Amino acid sequence: MSSSRVGLRLAACLLNVSEAGRKYIVENIAKAALLDKNGKKHPQVSVLNIFSDQDYKRSVITIATSVDKLGSSVLAACLEAFQAIDMEVQEGIHPCLGAVDLIPIYPLSGVTVE
C-alpha cells in the first residue's frame, strides 16, 4: 500500500488480545481484519505484524489501512477474538480486561491524532 497517493489517510491499530498459546486463534483474529463481510479480502487492509508473548498470554496484531476502513477491520477482528477466546480458562502474568484488552490507534499518513 503506497502512501504516495495524494490525500491518502492511513492509520494503524495495535490490537491487544488475550491469547498467545494457540497460534491458530491469533491468526484467525488477524485474518478477520483482512476480510470484508462477504469473506473477500480487503485489498487496502494489511496485517503488518503479529507479536505473541507466551508468558503474558497476549498478542499484539498490527492492522494498517485507510482511516475509512480501519474501524470495520478492527471491529471484525474484535468480534473474532470475543468468539474465540474463553476468558474462563485464560491465564497469564499480565492482568486482562477481556478477550480484547486494548485498541490503540495511531496516525500514519495524512491524518492527525485529532
Judging from the principal axes of the Cα atoms, what is the shape? globular
The CATH architecture name reads 2-Layer Sandwich
Give me the number of helical elements: 2
Structural class by SSE content: alpha+beta
Largest sheet data:
5 strands, antiparallel
Organism: Homo sapiens (Human)
Domain Formiminotransferase N-terminal subdomain: 9-114
InterPro entries: Formiminotransferase_N, Formiminotransferase_N_sf, FormiminoTrfase_cat_dom_sf, FTCD
Pfam family, one: FTCD_N
Q: Keywords, please?
A:
2 helices, single chain, Formiminotransferase-cyclodeaminase, Chain B, domain 1, 5-stranded antiparallel β-sheet, Formiminotransferase_N, alpha+beta, 114 residues
Sequence-ordered SSE layout with sheet pairings:
Blueprint lengths: L9 E8 L5 H12 L11 E8 L4 E9 H18 L15 E3 L2 E5 L5
Helix pairs in contact: 1-2
Folded structure, characterized:
The chain contains two helices and five strands, in the order βαββαββ. It has 114 residues and is an alpha+beta fold. It has one domain (11-108): 2-Layer Sandwich (Formiminotransferase-cyclodeaminase, Chain B, domain 1), CATH 3.30.990. Strands 1, 2, 3, 4 and 5 form a five-stranded antiparallel beta sheet that branches. A hairpin with a 4-residue loop joins β2 (46-53) and β3 (58-66). α1 (23-34) packs antiparallel against α2 (67-84). The longest helix has 18 residues, at 67-84. Pfam families: FTCD_N (PF07837). GO terms for molecular function: folic acid binding; transferase activity. This is Formiminotransferase cyclodeaminase N-terminal like. Residues 9-114 form the Formiminotransferase N-terminal subdomain domain.
